[in-house]
Design goal:
single chain, alpha/beta, 5 strands, globular
Length: about 240
């Protein structure tokens, strides 16, 4: 076996990041908090490793309820991923997303979401990738969406990456603009900085714990976070 690889990789950094994100969602579940990407969507369930439910996207599933009904959020956690044509991790994610998106028995295209979570977005990803998903949701038609994207080369290049990978995922058959637009309306990317020293996101969740815990609890916010992380670690391997 090769000894190559960073200390982070050898130490299971990617797996730890996945557990940290799952811990954050479980805390939101415990306090009945809202879930990202679903306006006023109260989290009602978190399920880990959901291939046994028929999903291809396997890191975890979050279920939320809003005035519009129930929403399923399929989440793939990658501590570091490049959103490019030649990145195999990204291709695997999109291939799985495409299969789930087209499985009407487990995915509602009008309410459900497909989310990639990574440790930090680059400036380019914030400016152009994130905007691509925002514009897909906020434009009324595929014509308006494509016209807006085509005005800016960096955003057009991002769209072409999805067009190329989705073609492969679709059995080497091209998708039209409407099909790509409809798919991108369901996709989003989030960032959590849990792997950074002085993590802002962890501080946010520690504050949530402090504000939400029982006044009779003798455990502090860090001890409660650590106990939930430990609990997630026992659940994650077995779903």
């Amino acid at each position: 076996m090769s000894n190559k690889g960073s200390v982070f990789q050898k130490g299971g950094g990617g797996t730890n990041f996945e557990k940290l994100v799952q811990t954050a969602f479980l805390i939101n579940l415990i306090i009945r908090g809202n879930v990202p990407c679903i306006p006023s969507g109260e989290l009602s369930e978190v399920a880990l490793q959901v291939t046994n439910r028929g999903y291809e996207t396997d890191d975890f599933l979050a279920v939320a309820k809003s005035i519009n009904g129930e929403h399923r959020i399929l989440i793939q956690v990658k501590h570091d991923i490049s959103f490019t044509k030649d990145n195999e991790k990204f291709k695997e994610v999109i291939f799985a997303f495409w299969k789930d998106y087209n499985n009407n028995s487990i995915f509602d295209k009008t309410r459900d979401k497909l989310i990639v979570i990574k440790n930090g977005l680059t400036k380019d990803e914030r400016n152009h990738l994130k905007s691509l998903f925002n514009w897909a949701v906020n434009h009324a038609t595929e014509t308006d969406f494509i016209s807006e994207v085509n005005r800016i080369k960096a955003k057009k290049d991002r769209l072409e990456v999805f067009r190329a990978i989705l073609r492969e995922a679709n059995g080497n058959t091209d998708l039209d603009d409407n099909e790509i637009w409809e798919f991108l309306k369901c996709v989003d990317v989030l960032e959590y900085d849990f792997l950074n020293e002085g993590s802002i996101d962890k501080t946010y969740f520690l504050n949530l714990i402090k504000l939400s815990k029982s006044k009779n609890s003798t455990a502090n916010d860090v001890e409660i976070w650590d106990s939930i992380f430990s609990f997630v670690s026992t659940l994650n391997p077995n779903g």
